[in-house]
RNA sequence: GCGCCCAUGGCUCAGCUGGAUAGAGCGUCGGACUACGAAUCCGGAUGUCGCAGGUUCGAAUCCUGCUGGGCGCACCA
């Protein structure tokens, strides 16, 4: 239980002690700032430490050490979790937790099982995460894949933190690009019928276009030759977009990503979403006209310059539709909206913020996660890619080649906003260069131990039959402390929208386990110790499993 | 020209809301399988946290300037 965690209990102890000092007039303060309690890096500094005394030094006009003494003097450890507390360095208060307390925590982890790590931080608030959102003009490529995983895992993390999550894909199925798609199919169709045509280089070159044209030919023959070209192109656009979108959905599903909804940009026009938005903005006085062009005063909200929402030719811009889309999101009752964008769109953020503020929503309700580009490599050498020429490595190809688990894990090994080198050969390699197997191996190894114990007639002990005192080797304490950190890691990851924190945590935890495994035997002649260690193993497996699940990566029992 | 992001061992990167002696992996050198799974482990070496100031008890972290790199600055999406 998070409320009962050691960290929270210590924090409460310190708050009470400091509160008592204030009440007695020893500390002259109006109110107490939030108490920071952190696990220490070094054993000499105890298990947890707080810097509160140093924070208070200036406002209370006292020396940090003096304040620390007062606070420690007022600690009332009624639940007896502390071995001792010490004042150290410039004024840290270090807490040494009684050994027995650690192992007791294990029992909570075991009891909570699959729900360990979940919190109610979000209290059911509704969050929509919009990601991928590629135009249906071609299959998803490697760059989309990273955004897809980041979005999916951010959503998972928030869900584990108690938010009500809705995953959405915005289909950019209006505008020029779509028209180009239809044309592309049209020209290939003509080619297949033996007409000599010049294929424009603004059109999509990929082989999938030819396949689609071929399908149409097989189905309907040459009957489109007699029809109106513009009408045919529109029909081809719809047909191609439908096929491609189905392919995208399938590819995403293979990658473990399922959306709650695919939202069509066209629907915004059909339902007057865009027109309604413009009327709304105009009424609020954020729109002005310059000849035939309509401008939105985004500078009122800190943007560099105003933006066009309706072009000279009368057509609304992409931006106009996007604000209408976000308006629609808010109308559906989401408390927070998260957009996952390619980092090259960062310049778009101020105007989007302007858009939602004009609609009366605070800046903070729209959070944008930027995902940097992926450098695709093979054995250290860049893989040539060019969307124009149709030479790109698709997401499907990558997933098929390296596997879902390795692909997902590799996309989460860096902060989202930093560039990522993705080496196809390294991602397939079963070594330390490829941490996904390192972590999965830890899980498989534990399962193997548990099987072995089972074979030897040693079942998993019930919680009550485990003597916590028997887990006191430093490596065991370190493992338990790592397990205890998990809910905090999830919480931090949710707060900052940084999924890579889970990945790094998993590497740490797996490392601690492998190290312990090589040094000590879990199953031994000593039955009581064996039981205690088996119990510890089970808890490690629980956390590995929960964390991997969060990343959408499997936790195999055998490899 | 303006704006955003980045700069940490040879390489690729972590570093939580400022905390105590800056960490991993790769690579390198040297070790561990008659052992619950060697897809593992143990040990050695490697740093002016781009540069210069500032803020304070304390700065890789915050502020300013500079250098170097990426991206953006559409009536494209």
Describe the structure.
The chain has 559 residues and is an alpha/beta fold. Among the domains are: 6-97, Gyrase A, domain 2 (2-Layer Sandwich), CATH 3.30.1360.70; 176-254, no CATH class; 432-551, Isoleucyl-tRNA Synthetase, Domain 1 (Orthogonal Bundle), CATH 1.10.730. The protein has 19 helices and 15 strands. It has helices at residues 6-23, 52-60, 64-73, 99-112, 142-160, 176-192, 207-220, 229-254, 265-270, 273-283, 318-331, 349-358, 395-402, 404-411, 424-428, 435-455, 474-496, 500-519, 527-551, and strands at 37-39, 48-50, 82-88, 92-97, 126-130, 164-171, 261-264, 287-290, 293-296, 307-310, 336-342, 366-371, 374-378, 381-382, 420-423. A five-stranded parallel sheet has the order 7-6-5-11-12, with helices on both faces. Strand 11, helix 12 and strand 12 (366-371) form a beta-alpha-beta unit. Helix 6 packs across helix 8 (229-254), helix 13 crosses helix 14 and helix 17 (474-496) runs antiparallel to helix 18. It is flat, with a radius of gyration of 29 Å. The protein binds one RNA strand of 77 nucleotides through helix 2, strand 10, helix 11, helix 16 and helix 17.
Coarse morphology: flat
* CATH fold category name of the domain at 432-551: Isoleucyl-tRNA Synthetase, Domain 1
Strand order across the biggest sheet? 7-6-5-11-12
Q: Radius of gyration over alpha carbons?
A: 29 Å
Structural class: alpha/beta
């Amino acid at each position: 239980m998070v409320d009962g965690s050691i960290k929270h209990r210590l924090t409460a102890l310190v708050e009470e002690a400091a509160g008592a000092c204030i009440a007695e007039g020893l500390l002259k303060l109006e109110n107490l700032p939030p108490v920071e309690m952190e696990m220490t890096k070094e054993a000499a500094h105890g298990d947890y430490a707080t810097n509160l005394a140093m924070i208070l030094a200036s406002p209370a006009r006292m020396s940090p050490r003096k304040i620390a003494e007062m606070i420690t003097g007022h600690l009332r450890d009624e639940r007896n979790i502390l071995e001792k507390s010490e004042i150290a360095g410039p004024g840290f208060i270090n807490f040494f937790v009684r050994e027995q307390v650690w192992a007791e925590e294990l029992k909570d982890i075991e009891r909570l099982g699959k729900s360990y790590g979940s919190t109610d931080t979000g209290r059911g608030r509704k969050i929509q995460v919009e990601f991928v959102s590629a135009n249906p003009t071609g299959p998803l490529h490697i760059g989309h894949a990273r955004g897809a995983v980041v979005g999916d895992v951010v959503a998972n993390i928030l869900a584990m933190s108690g938010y009500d999550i809705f995953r959405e894909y915005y289909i950019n199925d209006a505008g020029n690009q779509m028209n180009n798609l239809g044309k592309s199919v049209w020209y290939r169709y003509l080619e297949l019928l033996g007409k000599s045509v010049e294929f424009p280089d603004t059109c999509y070159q990929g082989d999938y276009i030819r396949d689609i044209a071929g399908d149409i030919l097989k189905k309907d023959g040459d009957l489109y030759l007699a029809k109106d070209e513009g009408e045919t192109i529109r029909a081809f656009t719809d047909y191609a977009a439908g096929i491609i979108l189905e392919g995208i959905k399938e590819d995403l599903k293979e990658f473990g990503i399922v959306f709650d909804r695919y939202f069509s940009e066209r629907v915004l026009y059909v339902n007057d979403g865009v027109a309604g938005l413009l009327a709304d903005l105009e009424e609020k006085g954020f729109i002005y006209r310059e000849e035939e062009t309509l401008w939105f005063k985004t500078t009122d909200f800190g943007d560099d310059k105003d933006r066009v929402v309706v072009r000279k030719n009368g057509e609304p811009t992409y931006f106009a539709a996007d604000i209408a889309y976000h308006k629609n999101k808010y109308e559906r009752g989401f408390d927070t909206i998260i957009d996952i964008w390619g980092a090259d769109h960062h310049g778009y953020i101020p105007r989007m913020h302007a858009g939602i503020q004009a609609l009366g929503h605070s800046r903070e309700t729209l959070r944008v996660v930027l995902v940097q580009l992926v450098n695709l490599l093979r054995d250290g050498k860049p893989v040539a890619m060019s969307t124009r020429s149709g030479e790109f490595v698709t997401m499907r190809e990558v997933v098929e080649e390296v596997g879902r688990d390795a692909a997902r894990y590799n996309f989460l090994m860096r902060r989202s906003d930093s560039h990522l080198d993705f080496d196809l050969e390294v991602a397939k390699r079963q070594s330390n260069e490829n941490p996904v197997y390192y972590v999965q191996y830890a899980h498989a190894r534990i399962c193997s131990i548990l099987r072995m114990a089972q074979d030897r007639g040693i079942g998993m002990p019930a919680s009550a039959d485990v003597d916590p005192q028997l887990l006191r080797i430093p490596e065991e304490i370190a493992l338990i402390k790592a397990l205890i950190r998990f809910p905090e890691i999830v919480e931090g990851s949710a707060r900052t929208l940084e999924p890579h924190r889970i990945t790094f945590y998993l590497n740490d935890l797996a490392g601690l386990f492998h190290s312990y495994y090589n040094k000590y035997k879990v199953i031994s002649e000593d039955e009581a110790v064996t039981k205690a260690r088996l119990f510890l193993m089970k808890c490690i497996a629980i956390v590995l499993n929960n964390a991997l699940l969060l990343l959408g990566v499997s936790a195999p029992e055998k490899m």
